[in-house]
Amino acid sequence: MAATDEKYDSALLGILQNEGQVAPFLDAIIGFLYRRTDFFRIMKTDTDKLGFPPGVAFNLLVNIFKKYESLSTKDQQRREETRKAVHVPAKEIKSQAASVDSTNSDAQNIVSAAKGDDTLNPTDERGQDISTQSSTLSVSAMEKSKSDQQSEGMEVEKQEAASTENSVNNGQENEEEEKEDPEQARLRRQLQANPLTYNGADCDSYLWSQSIAEADIRVKVPKSIVRGKQVKVDIGKKKISVSCQQGTSFSELVNGELEWEVKAEDSMWTLSPGEFVHINLEKKQERWWERVFIGESGINTRKIDCSRPMTDLDDEAQAKIEEMMFNQRQKQLGLPQSHEVKTHEMLRKAWDAEGSPFKGQPFDPSKFTVDPSGTATFNPEDS
Known about the structure:
By secondary structure, the protein is of the alpha+beta class. The chain folds into three domains: 3-81, no CATH class; 90-169 and 315-382, no CATH class; 200-298, Immunoglobulin-like (Sandwich), CATH 2.60.40. The protein has helices at residues 3-6, 9-19, 22-36, 56-85, 90-117, 146-179, 182-193, 315-333, 338-351, and strands at residues 136-138, 201-202, 206-210, 214-220, 231-235, 239-246, 249-257, 268-272, 276-282, 368-370, 375-378. It has a five-stranded antiparallel beta sheet. A three-stranded antiparallel beta sheet has the order 1-11-10. The longest helix is centred in the middle third of the chain and has 34 residues, at 146-179. Mean pLDDT is 75; it is low at 100-150.
């Protein structure tokens, strides 16, 4: 969300917390448009200066809804793709990185030679005719500067370390699960399957779930609690208290010191009538919590889902994962992968260069076999 959109969050959060539910919140916003603007006024003639033509105001609301519905759908698709992509083996990441490093120097030599001679010599270094033997042209799968290579190498090392750590953790988790009581394992899987206790737990007075950056607490309330004014919620950087109305006074539901600090100013709460008060906490530090409040029993953070949304990764890591996903799809469809596409582009430029035996002929990528390292092998029998 852009900063221009976020500047109204404090005011809107105040309204949402006061109303306690999304429906009355929307009613307050639309009611404001009704009372203070000409949004619902219908233009009778083209000369009217206030209002909208029939149906225009309604379509405006629908279009704005569809805009954010589309964004939500894309976010969901991205999360699903990330879940599949993040499990790429460390060995594969290392292989791709090695391929880039090993071919880059060869590519620079070829490019330098092409610039100096501006020709393609039809004979190899021993003077043998290129048309009578299969010759190998080494080309880079990616054209990168030295700084780009270093950045990518560091990113690959980070991803490889993370993947290796996940593999070790998975092995330890499997070993521990074998020792775990079957009933406890069943309950743990049941909690993980419930969005309200995902990566969290079901405690006596509340349920909680978490991601790496946020925690969601749902404090149970009596069925008689249906309005935001019937609850009091206090969110501090290290403490939370929730009370609900019981007759003429308020009864405390939750009051405890958080084990880890949160960004109180960025946290919020809403009421699900007769069910719970939903508190969304933004963690001050990105880490997995074992418990919400100090002194309570904790969960085993080695047995939760520690995957992260793709949007949480930096641009380079996202680009690397997107490239892997692209290659996976291309491979399934029998189409050229990214290293083949880039290699073919370089070969296409050399194909029609001055002195090339293929000058004037249409470029034919089928005459080359490109391996994952970006090395292209010429197949003379196809010429």
